[in-house]
Amino acid sequence: MTSDDTQAATTVRLRCDGAVDEDTLAYARTKIDAVLSRPGLPTTTGEVRIVRAAAHHTDLPWSATADLHVGTRQVVVHAEQATGRELVDQLQDRLRRQTDKAAHTWDTRRRTTAPPWRGSDQRPA
Fold it and tell me: Between the CA atoms of 62, 68, 37 and 39, what dihedral angle is there, to the nearest 10 degrees?
């Protein structure tokens, strides 16, 4: 079973495959929205997919993949865990770290100008 939910606040689609319960999806929506709706983050689009394996003999049946575009940068995050909540928590941590890196790179105000001997036309103020 595949569900397709689009969040109104961001343009990130949350999808699930397998026997993913509604509690885990609601928890995932809250955590992902908390990461992606922070002030200062550029426009974010993409998809987050949560999968629960049907095989009972696997050690880590829960997996998630996030493929996002943060500004002009692409962010890809993978996570695997034994339970749905642990998976969402790990996904949130990894998403926050990667989106912080992408936002820092995206912010041009933090970049320094090249020194004059490297071809910079700007003079220091």
Answer: 140
CB atoms within 10 A of CB 40: 9
Cα(44)–Cα(57) distance, integer angstroms: 36
Instruction: Give the H/E segment covering residue 34.
Output: helix 22-36
pLDDT tens by residue, 73-93 = 899 999 999 999 999 999 999
Q: What is the pLDDT of residues 1-31, one digit of tens each?
A: 334 443 333 589 999 998 899 999 999 999 9
Query: Could you write out the DSSP letters of every residue in 85-112?
Result: HHHHHHHHHHHHHHHHHHHHHH-GGGPP
- Give the integer Cα–Cα distance in Å for 63 and 1: 16
DSSP SS3 for 56: coil
